[in-house]
Design goal:
about 325 residues, alpha+beta, Alpha-Beta Plaits, 2 domains, 10 helices, about 70% helix, elongated, cell division, Cell division protein FtsX, transmembrane
């Protein structure tokens, strides 16, 4: 009696078979999506808009924060000296303050220089020329070091500067920046909340789309169940379909954000030119683009997993 030899499949061959099936499922899922151009385009467009809204808000707050970073380079404290303080005394005071460890830079704006700048920016040249004396005092622009730039430290420094015998009064120039930063913090929190809500919307959209595809392929799924296909085997093509939807939606979102940034650049450049500056809108960048794409893929996978899981649990119950 001859013995029947059973050949065992090696682990490497099993891995190749598993990878080949995954590749075939991914190709087949993508082919099905392109086979339905109108429904796929509509679904991808909705997903792209849902992902683009929080991404655009993030880009906006990030650019505003970059602008405030530039504004932080302005003088934090302007120290106005008494009118009777002459130029030599003001220069000596500036030298003494430059030796303080909490100050990175001290600039002296003498009365004649301040008057010239005021004539250029104020539009009161005729009225200023009619004055017999220069009414403007000398001003010291104080720039703190980054380690001494907190609100509490600046207020303490302001109080110390006012007590100097040469000082008349001091003015902090960073209060409006602090308010803007508080607004930006609120905008970031709103971005997270909006992202969470729209992410839930993406899950529902992908889940409903996959559910409809499951209904269209019910006969095929029933045949696979009859021949003993596992739940993972049945679930796999739908997971790839959800991932493709998420990836295409992420690509659509990045294009929308890029287009929006380019459309607004002209208006931003004109506004910056009015203030004598120049500002280029920064887009998502490589990191932001990867985050949007990965978020789209993850939401697509989760949405399809939920939809297929509900179908499989329903099939088991029947």
């Amino acid at each position: 009696m001859s013995r029947i030899r059973r050949t065992r499949t090696r682990p490497s061959e099993l891995l190749l078979i598993w990878l080949a099936h995954h590749l075939r499922s991914a190709r087949e899922s993508l082919r099905r999506l392109f086979g339905m151009p109108l429904p796929t385009t509509m679904t991808v467009a909705v997903l792209g808009i849902s992902l683009a809204l929080p991404a655009t808000l993030y880009v906006g707050t990030d650019n505003l924060r970059a602008m405030t970073g530039r504004w932080d380079q302005t003088a934090a404290i302007s120290l106005f000296l008494r009118h009777e303080v002459d130029s030599s005394t003001a220069r000596a005071l500036a030298e003494r303050l430059r030796a303080r460890p909490e100050l990175a830079r001290v600039e002296l704006i003498e009365p004649d220089q301040a008057l010239a700048e005021f004539k250029e920016l104020g539009g009161f040249e005729g009225a200023l020329e009619a004055l017999d004396d220069n009414p403007l005092p000398a001003v010291l622009a104080l720039y703190p070091t980054p380690r001494h730039a907190t609100s509490e430290q600046l207020r303490a420094l302001e109080q110390q500067m006012v007590t100097l015998p040469e000082a008349d009064f001091a003015r902090m120039d960073t209060l409006w920046i602090e308010r803007l930063q508080a607004i930006l913090a609120l905008a970031e929190a709103a971005t997270l909340l909006l992202g969470a809500l729209l992410g839930l919307g993406v899950l529902l959209i992908v889940g409903n789309t996959i559910r409809l595809e499951i209904l269209n392929r019910r006969g095929e799924i029933e045949i696979m169940e009859l021949v003993g296909a596992t739940a993972a085997f049945i679930r796999r093509p739908f997971l790839y379909a959800g991932a493709w939807y998420g990836l295409l939606g992420g690509l659509c979102a990045t294009l929308l954000v890029t287009f929006s940034s380019g459309a607004l650049q002209g208006s931003v450049s004109r506004l910056a030119a009015l203030y004598g500056g120049e500002f280029r809108i920064a887009g998502l960048g490589l990191d932001g683009t990867l985050v949007v794409l990965l978020a789209g893929i993850a939401l697509g996978l989760v949405g399809s997993w939920i939809a297929v899981g509900r179908h499989l649990r329903g099939a088991e119950a029947d």
